[in-house]
Specification:
heterodimer, A: 213 residues, B: 187 residues, 5 helices
Chain lengths: 213, 187
């Protein structure tokens, strides 16, 4: 999934103002997969949401502590939780078809073996030729893994729904947006945000070391 | 997983380009600090740590993209992505094999042939991934990727200093951003 462009980044502007712009876009990006990703069959939306969470996490990893209000660090932890959970779901989505594919390969090989066991001119296939094929024992383990992954995927998806519900209930988006508009001053003190919530245009919300003393 | 190193001196009010120089320099160093022993498949955490470091570096390169000269930045980002992909080619089968080993340990023995049937082609993938990674590391070493990344990091502040005329608080034209006009975007 291609990242959304962040407009108005300015190398000469402050780190915090630029980072705030990036956080806002990455938050919107994350939110854009809702409600699609709340459907367990929307594998692509879930995968893309994981990528969006990863992008948000990395920008917060660099900027939450030096730039933003206290909630940004909490948001970083929540975003990592979300990314990890979606990552585990993605792993199940990738592995399950591979296991099914491997089973199909082994089944096809055993069917060929069964066919070869039968006399060349047989009118029909005696079922006994389909027993004790070389991969028969392997199927059981593959079936177990397939069942395990399917069940695990279901459970992880339930956890994802719970986590997302919790994030919404706790006002994750609004609180992170607010925290990203707060500024850490030179002495570590946090100042309130500017009126427009994004100080990028005029730098009004930046707490200079002098201001925060 | 290795914790990301703190970036000394990072402050909310510092110029974005200065933060870019400091952050990219540290994340690039971290990448190569984790390169020792990554081709050893008996310790899969090494490749994991280097892969995480490559992701962090890639992420900060993308975040700070407007601070770097485009001609220098674009091919380097590509190279970092290629290295990250090569690390992923080794890491993905590592993870899967590790999980299969965990499953095998807890499931009844009757499941072992099935797990082995699934693991065999993944071991081959791991070998291919290791060969790809070896080539990528060799390329990075031969082309001095570490040195070029250090130069790129430094270029963010060099350009910033060069582009802002002294004693010119309000230039007639806006100072050009290293990667294009101000207001251009990439993150």
């Amino acid at each position: 999934m291609k990242a959304r462009k962040v407009k108005g980044l300015d190398p000469e502007g402050t780190l915090a103002d630029n980072a705030e712009r990036i956080v806002r876009v990455r938050l919107d990006e994350l939110q854009s997969f809702i409600p699609r990703a709340l459907d367990p069959d929307e594998v692509t939306a879930l995968h893309d949401m994981r990528i969006a969470a990863k992008r948000l996490r990395y920008v917060l990893e660099v900027t939450a502590e030096p730039c933003f209000g206290p909630y940004a660090e909490t948001a970083l932890k929540r975003t990592k939780e979300l990314q990890d959970l979606l990552g585990e779901i993605h792993d199940c989505d990738v592995q399950l078809p591979r296991i099914m594919g491997r089973m199909e390969e082994l089944r096809a090989a055993d069917a060929r073996t069964a066919r070869m066991r039968a006399p060349a001119k047989a009118d029909d296939l005696d079922p006994k030729y389909a027993t004790r094929t070389s991969s028969a024992r392997a199927w059981r383990g593959l079936e177990t893994m397939a069942i395990y992954l399917k069940a695990r995927r279901g459970l992880l998806f339930e956890r994802f729904l719970e986590l997302w519900t919790r994030l919404e209930r706790d006002g994750f988006r609004a609180r992170l947006t607010f925290a990203a508009s707060e500024r850490v001053g030179g002495d570590g003190a946090v100042t309130p945000p500017s009126q427009d919530g994004n100080a990028t245009r005029d730098g009004a919300a930046i707490a200079s070391p002098a201001q925060s003393r | 997983m290795a914790k990301a190193r703190d970036i000394d001196g990072l402050r909310a009010s510092m110029p974005f380009a200065e933060a870019a120089a400091a952050t990219v320099a540290v994340r690039a160093e971290e990448l190569f600090e984790h390169s020792a022993g990554v081709l050893d498949t008996s310790d899969i955490e090494r490749v994991h740590d280097m892969r995480v470091a490559s992701r962090r570096l890639r992420a900060v390169l993308e975040i700070y993209a407007p601070c770097f000269p485009k001609a220098q930045f674009t091919p380097l980002l590509r190279e970092v992505k290629d290295l990250a992909d090569a690390l992923g080619e080794r890491r993905d089968p590592d993870v899967l094999l590790d999980r299969l080993a965990t499953l095998e340990a807890v499931l009844p023995k009757a499941n072992t042939p099935g797990i082995e049937a699934f693991a065999a082609p993944i071991r081959e993938e791991q070998e291919r991934g290791n060969a790809t990674l070896a080539a990528a590391l060799e390329h990075a070493e031969r082309t001095n990727l570490a040195g070029r990344l250090a130069l790129l990091a430094a270029s963010a502040v060099e350009l910033e200093e060069d582009d802002v005329p002294e004693a010119a608080p309000e230039p007639a034209e806006p100072a050009a951003a290293p990667s294009g006009p101000n207001g251009a975007s990439a993150a």
